Amino acid sequence: MPQAVAGPEIERLIQLLARMPGLGPRSARRAALQLIKKRDTLLAPLADAMRVAVERIVVCRECGNVDTCDPCTICSDPKRDPTVLVVVEDVSDLWALERSGAVQARYHVLGGVLSALDGVRPEHLNIASLAERAANPEVTEIIIALNATVDGQTTAHYVTDAIKALGLKVTRLAHGVPVGGELDYLDEGTLTAAIRSRTAF
Amino acid sequence: MPQAVAGPEIERLIQLLARMPGLGPRSARRAALQLIKKRDTLLAPLADAMRVAVERIVVCRECGNVDTCDPCTICSDPKRDPTVLVVVEDVSDLWALERSGAVQARYHVLGGVLSALDGVRPEHLNIASLAERAANPEVTEIIIALNATVDGQTTAHYVTDAIKALGLKVTRLAHGVPVGGELDYLDEGTLTAAIRSRTAF
């Protein structure tokens, strides 16, 4: 632990910044100095934006998204397709899908994936609430948009089992060559999946 | 520009975070999500620490350091050697020297270095105030602790000229092999300097 070189207020700011993902102790110090230098154009607006976030951001009780209203903007958007529910692991995945604009439906954030190693069990995830929402007769399709990792796919199977009795169409994301990807750099699993799911040209 | 995926408050937080050094648009989004998840343990304390920084941090009118008091903790510390002034480019350099604990003197932050390319001229730097402080009869030595870059060394020469008339001892940091450094990876300039300034074993 290096000795404190600035007043306790600055040291506290540095220590808190260092706990942000993507910043370590050294880059936090650099960031703090930049913030202090740009006090009026960056530090003050950022402090205000954070204060607003603390006070106003809530978790949507429908889907688990974070927003300033509950139900969230997506859940209360009447233009969304009410027949489809997209199951994602985390809010960041929801944001990624929204950025792509690929689907105009509602989401369901599980809040994690099953993991024996990390002790994450079904009751820790929002699976019961998914089953409730899926039971709504309006819903006809569940898109499982979980990461293509072992834990993600285990969870996908568990979720599929949990809602199987409802007789809904359950789909998952396609495996294949990423757009812009080069075959030489892809793993065998992806190539096998891409060949198996080949489409007419 | 990707479409906004969250409410305006969250988007604003992300945009401001993306302007911090070390964070880009993507890592800012990740950071924002982490902050929102750790609302009580990280986001709220960080917002408070930033608010305190906005309100209380001032630039020391003596040396140019940033602190919550003016003159700063270092300038008002009676245990510091009053005969030595260490000239640094930026507050980050002052912090680096303080972390090393190598010198127990006072500092003078120039606020930059001369640069023809960036249009930084002597009147943009705190050189006049340095000459004033150096004229204090208590001061007997000026340590020029500027970066060993072209601009840093140009500035060092300019500063030395500006205070030459006062007849003070003016020193600069030694050039040589960094502690832990391997000769094979060092440039010729450093090796030449290290040989020239060799010391008795």
TrEMBL record, chains A, B:
Chain positions of all zinc fingers (C4-type): 60-75
Keyword Isomerase: no
InterPro entries: DNA_Rcmb_RecR, Rcmb_RecR, Rcmb_RecR_Znf, TOPRIM_dom, TOPRIM_RecR
Keyword Repeat: no
Every Toprim domain range: 83-178
Family per record: Belongs to the RecR family.
Role of this protein: May play a role in DNA repair. It seems to be involved in an RecBC-independent recombinational process of DNA repair. It may act with RecF and RecO.
Protein name per the record: Recombination protein RecR
Gene: recR
